[in-house]
Amino acid sequence: MIAEAGLAALWLAAACALLQLVMAAIGLRQTRGETIDQLFAAVRPVAIVGGLLTTISFACLIAVFLRSDMSVLLVAQNSHSAKPLLYKFAGAWGNHEGSMLLWVTVLGIAGGAIALLEHRLAERTLVATLGAQAAIALGFFAFLLAASNPFARLDQAPADGMGLNPFLQDPGLAFHPPTLYIGYVGLSVAFSFAVGALVTRDVGTAFARAMRPWVLGAWIFLTLGITAGSYWAYYELGWGGWWFWDPVENASLMPWLAATALLHSVTVLATRDGLRAWTVMLAVIAFSMSMLGTFLVRSGILTSVHAFAVDPSRGTFILALLALYIGGAMALFALRIGTVKAGNTFELLSREGALVLNNLLLSVILGLVLIGTLYPIVASAFGTQLSVGAPFFDKTIGPIVLILVAALVAGPMIRWRRDQWSALAGRVIAPIAAAVIALAALILFAPFKSVLSLLGLAFAIGLAVASVAPLWKRDLRRAPLFTYGMVIAHLGVAVSLAGMASDSAFTQERLVAAKVGDPVSIGPFRVRLEGIKPVIGPNWSGLEARLSIQRGDGAKFIMRPEQRFFANPPTTTSEAAIATRLDGQLYAVLGQPDTGGRWQLRLWWKPFVTFIWLGGVLIALGGALSLIGRLRRERRPVLRERYA
Amino acid sequence: MKPKHQRLTLVLLALAAVLGAGGIALSALEDQAAFFYAPGDVGKGVPIGRAVRLGGMVESGSLRRASDGVTQQFTITDGVSKVPVSFAGIAPDLFKEGSGVVAEGSFMPGGGFKATNLLAKHDERYMPPEIAGKMHKTESLAP
């Protein structure tokens, strides 16, 4: 019954979306009258009901997974009654249909949230926004109901399910996909706002102020989702890498780059009423990148290390939706942007100018990631099989990131409207000096490392110094919360960059075949293989190596890398053991034994690698502070108006 | 500056940036894109020492461990041609005889392949499109 209820809720939610779209379209055709007021008043509740219905549908999917109802096809294919409860729960979205339902659920909730929370946008623009949100939802409802029904039943229920892919059996599955999807699909709100504003030609500071919190909210989740995904891949795949420039990863990075640019351009629009057309364009691009990412991931058109069972026939459907929505929004943009009044202009050397540079560089990086990701598809259309990987991205994006970081050092120190080059020069002396000293020290002590990673470290140190400049000589208690947000987010960029550069410059790696009792040295550690013993888990059995490790004369500690054998489906996975220290991580993987009783061991010492994800968390935290600060400050006038 | 001029400057700047990025991208793609080869391509001539990918099936019974304990040797086949591959490292979990693999590395003089990385999939039900395509071409191999 639960599955049928879930399917019914999904159909009803689709009906709500259709109603919402029709009401918005009729309402916007006329200019005034009583029917309009009634229509406008009814659009909000319909959007909220639609959001609730999709949530109910998703709850039903979780329920059938928790109950291990094997008569539901999706459960039978992807779950097993012996699975731990957490993975029955998270397994609901560890497959194509479930993850698409999660996608649509976030879309529905986002629509409901606009209807419930957005009170600052002009009424007509809001109705147009809800109409756009409903239009997106309709297409993806159609995709779910026609091509990926998660609630399909089997005529005869099997005795038990086929089990969840063991690689996904990890706490990361409970956190990473939902966070990423909230960010990914949350950008649909910016898209709908842009479409709404184009429909009513109402692009200005009020519009930007209304849109900013939504963009920030989605961007925070996207940042957290990418950070979590990177750490998950790092410890689960057992290669010691944290980013592979894999198409699936790029699919999440591209919306992030666009959203980061949008976040900065929307500030120019909100503060100085400049960059009107560009901000609207970016809002369209950001969610277009989310949809493109969904297409790349779900169609299986590209080889990915993260891809799990995909069905190419579905790709065509998503591609059609992609063309419809991106094409539609771009056409609307082309038709309407000429009639949107131009915003304010500004001096070249001003905060506005610096933010334009930020947008330009982020767009170039976005373009490079896009080219690198799509090139193999284009090439294969011409009959050449090739793949574009880390060498391409490192070579092209590395230098541009350094330029971006250099711009980031100066940007927040430049005044709005107009500034003097000589004054700016005085302000950037401290961070530049810090970077130069750091570079000199690095060249002295680590002269043979790659140029890019040494420059990366030096730039990171300069940026760290520069990022706190906006708080310099200010009353710390009176500085607004969003200034703290900016400082912490920019510091996060420095911390993350330092981690990346340190990992690529100073990582040490050992690959050995060790007998029990053999000593191995790696970085500052002495490692000894103490023994191998069998272990047993809830739905797996395995082998565990006992490594005793000593650093200098310090206390010994134990690491236990494992090999696990899962029965459903039959798979072997290796579980890396990671010891985290303040100055880095020791990473150990157990491999296969040979006939002579030797075990393969792969060890890495990665100095300051944790900074990569710490920086990601700081960036998200900065975003959250900024969001709270903005809401607090900008709510006051709204409340005053409403209760005046 | 007049608004018209400013917009023109911005458009020109953006254009320059896009062209610059495109230039960098194309020049980097020229030498950085790893081309994908199947064992059947080896007879037709392959670049020596360049970073490429080689995809196919790990031939059953071919997997051997060298005496150093860490180097593995095996044969990648598309059902007709074979390429001997050596790989120093811990193979991914789904790497086994008789299943698909993509090896990253370079061809060596003499026809061998030295892999620096092996890619196998998260999912045992999944086959990389490149391999599926190449397998389809030879059609001699049972699924």
Question: What is the percentage of strand-forming residues of chain A?
Answer: 5-15%
Low-pLDDT residue spans of chain A? none
List the domain count of chain A as a whole number.
Answer: 4
Query: Helix and strand string of chain B, N-terminal first?
Result: HEEEEEEEH
Major β-sheet profile of chain B = 5 strands, mixed, barrel
What integer value in Å does the Rg of chain A equal? Answer: 26 Å
Number of helices of chain A: 17
Mean pLDDT of chain A: 89
Mean pLDDT of chain B: 75
The helix/strand series of chain A, from N terminus to C terminus, equals HHHHHHHHHHHHEHHHHEEEEEEEEEEH
| Main β-sheet description of chain A | 6 strands, antiparallel
Structural class of chain A: alpha+beta
Number of strands of chain A: 11
Number of structurally distinct domains of chain B: 2
The named CATH superfamily of the largest domain in chain B: Nucleic acid-binding proteins
Here the CATH topology of the largest domain in chain B equals OB fold (Dihydrolipoamide Acetyltransferase, E2P)
- Could you tell me how far the N terminus lies from the C terminus of chain A, measured between alpha carbons in angstroms? 51 Å
What does the overall shape of chain B look like? elongated
Calculate the terminal CA-CA distance of chain B, rounded to whole Å: 68 Å
